[in-house]
């Protein structure tokens, strides 16, 4: 039996369902999903292991029009990623009309093919199929077909699992023959620190996303094991984290009255970090104002962008 392996990158405008689809394909939670755009700042990989194939998924940040330096960097990252993968999956939600954001991405994809090289196949994925009746889905498939030259078009629902296997087969069919690239059981090669930062960011944004749209960056300074475990022998980790906001008013929102909100954020994030790391965690959160960090290359460097 031949074996195929390679990299797949999911692109699509913010909220198109890329993270949720990554989780559905991999079958475990690896990327952090959310109801709001642009929470996926880092490239997180999930790996689908099969007898006949290994598919390494790269979940990119939302490809969007650059507005700030941060945006430009994200787009560079997206473009670099695109030229390094074997297949691109372009996600378009079934329940929304094709808009300027989708057209922009379609143009970028059309332009992506390096000169003199055969292009990376692009599979158009119509996501959230569960949200529309069959007739609307058929119309959307036709509209997507007119949008570009796709290797395949597949409707899926990550929510109820509709066609997720079909999509896996289609993506695998576009991979080159080759051995497994990662040992089985490996779900993500993201460093733990990035996952921890995402969990803190999620907790800190909960309920205040409208007030802090893109103004919150989270940096994990260190994760250090305590020399002496807890009384019952469980290992204990000290996790020190900085949350950067742009303005004093945003700092006040994150911290809350008499620090109540930040304590809440800490409690929620700690539970998830403990589950992730399999240890008791002492979580130390600091909130700092880093003015206009989105526009300052030095700050961006410090924050890992
Ligand atoms: N009903 C339904 N909702 C979905 C499905 N897939 C994703 N969603 C929802 O759509 C929203 C966005 O999904 P994400 O997976 O976070 O989208 P994303 O493209 O990764 O978003 P960014 O991280 O902003 O780029 C979330 O509220 C999901 O719960 C689906 O198959 N069906």
TrEMBL record:
State where the protein is found: Cytoplasm; Cell membrane
GO molecular function terms attached to this record: GTP binding; GTPase activity; ribosomal small subunit binding; small ribosomal subunit rRNA binding
Region of interest (G3), residue spans: 59-62
Segments carrying the region annotation (G5) are: 156-158
Where in this chain does the record put each KH type-2 domain? 208-291
Region (G4) residue ranges read 127-130
Domain named Era-type G: residues:
4-177
In residue numbers, the region (G2) covers 38-42
Q: Describe its membrane topology.
A: Peripheral membrane protein
The highest taxon in the source lineage is Bacteria
InterPro entries of this UniProt entry? G_ERA_dom (IPR030388), GTP-bd (IPR006073), GTPase_Era-like (IPR005662), KH_dom-like_a/b (IPR015946), KH_dom_type_2 (IPR004044), KH_sf_prok-type (IPR009019), P-loop_NTPase (IPR027417), Small_GTP-bd (IPR005225)
Q: Supply the Gene3D superfamilies for this chain.
A: 3.30.300.20, P-loop containing nucleotide triphosphate hydrolases
Give the primary localization class. cytoplasm
Key words of the record: Cell membrane, Cytoplasm, GTP-binding, Membrane, Nucleotide-binding, Ribosome biogenesis, RNA-binding, rRNA-binding
The entry marks the following residues as binding GTP, namely 12-19, 59-63, 127-130
Q: Does the keyword Oxidoreductase apply?
A: no
- Record's GO cellular component terms: cytosol; plasma membrane
Annotated spans, G1 = 12-19
GO BP terms, alphabetized:
ribosomal small subunit assembly
Q: So what family is this one in? A: Belongs to the TRAFAC class TrmE-Era-EngA-EngB-Septin-like GTPase superfamily. Era GTPase family.
Q: How does it assemble?
A: Monomer.
Q: What does this protein do?
A: An essential GTPase that binds both GDP and GTP, with rapid nucleotide exchange. Plays a role in 16S rRNA processing and 30S ribosomal subunit biogenesis and possibly also in cell cycle regulation and energy metabolism.
User: What is the recorded name of this protein?
Assistant: GTPase Era
Name its species: Cellulomonas shaoxiangyii
Q: What is the lineage of its organism?
A: Bacteria, Bacillati, Actinomycetota, Actinomycetes, Micrococcales
């Amino acid at each position: 039996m031949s074996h195929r392996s390679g990299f797949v990158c999911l692109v699509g405008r913010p909220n198109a369902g890329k993270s949720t689809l990554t989780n559905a394909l991999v079958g475990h939670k690896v990327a952090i999903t959310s109801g709001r755009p642009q929470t996926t700042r880092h490239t997180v990989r999930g790996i689908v292991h099969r007898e006949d194939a290994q598919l390494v998924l790269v979940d990119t940040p939302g490809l969007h029009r650059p507005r700030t330096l941060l945006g430009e960097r994200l787009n560079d990252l997206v473009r670099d990623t695109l030229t390094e993968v074997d297949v691109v999956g372009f996600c378009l939600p079934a329940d929304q009309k094709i808009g300027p954001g989708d057209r922009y991405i379609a143009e970028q994809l059309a332009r992506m093919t390096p000169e003199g090289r055969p292009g990376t196949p692009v599979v158009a994925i119509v996501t959230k199929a569960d949200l529309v009746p069959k007739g609307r889905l058929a119309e959307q498939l036709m509209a997507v077909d007119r949008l570009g030259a796709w290797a395949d078009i597949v409707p899926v629902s990550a929510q109820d699992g509709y066609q997720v296997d079909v999509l896996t087969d289609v993506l695998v069919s576009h991979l080159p023959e080759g051995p497994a690239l990662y040992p089985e059981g490996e779900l993500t090669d993201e460093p733990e620190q990035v996952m921890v930062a995402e969990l803190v960011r999620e907790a800190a944004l909960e309920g205040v996303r409208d007030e802090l749209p893109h103004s919150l960056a989270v940096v994990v300074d260190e994760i250090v094991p305590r020399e002496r475990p807890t009384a019952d022998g469980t290992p204990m980790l000290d996790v020190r984290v900085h949350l950067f906001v742009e303005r004093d008013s945003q700092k006040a929102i994150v911290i809350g009255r008499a620090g109540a909100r930040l304590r809440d954020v800490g409690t929620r994030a700690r539970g998830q970090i403990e589950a992730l790391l399999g240890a008791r965690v002492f979580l130390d959160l600091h909130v700092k104002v880093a003015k206009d960090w989105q526009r300052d290359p030095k700050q961006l460097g410090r924050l890992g962008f």
